[in-house]
Amino acid sequence: MMHMTLYWGIKVTLLFDSWKTDSWPSYLVSLLACCLFSAFYQYMEDRRIKFKTLAVAVNNTPSQGVPLLGSSKLRRFSSAKFASAILFGFNSAIGYLLMLAVMSFNGGVFLAIVAGLSVGYLLFRFEDEQRVVIVEDPCPCA
Known about the structure:
Blueprint: E1 12-13, E2 20-21, H1 24-59, H2 71-76, H3 79-102, H4 107-130
Antiparallel strand pairs: 1-2
């Protein structure tokens, strides 16, 4: 039977029927796996954002041989955009799996995932907040 309220027991079924915990060691290993998986999610999100900024920087470099009007069609289906879309899909899948793990309504799983997301953010994405982004508007009327 699935729990509909937050509970604190060691008997948990996570994501699959075969991933069940029935003892303290198996429960702690599962919590560690949830924590590491959520930190990995933050790492992959950092990689995706950095790859996207790199792809935008490469696509925005001026090319002398490309005509002005035809340049937008060349950038529409670049391999960098395709790879960025693949990373976005992968990160979305990881995020939804973490959400489904939290929906087991086990308090320890919830805390392990929140702790892993926090540690992953601190290790991999904290410098994103430190950067100052300056956006220059090319429109003179703005």
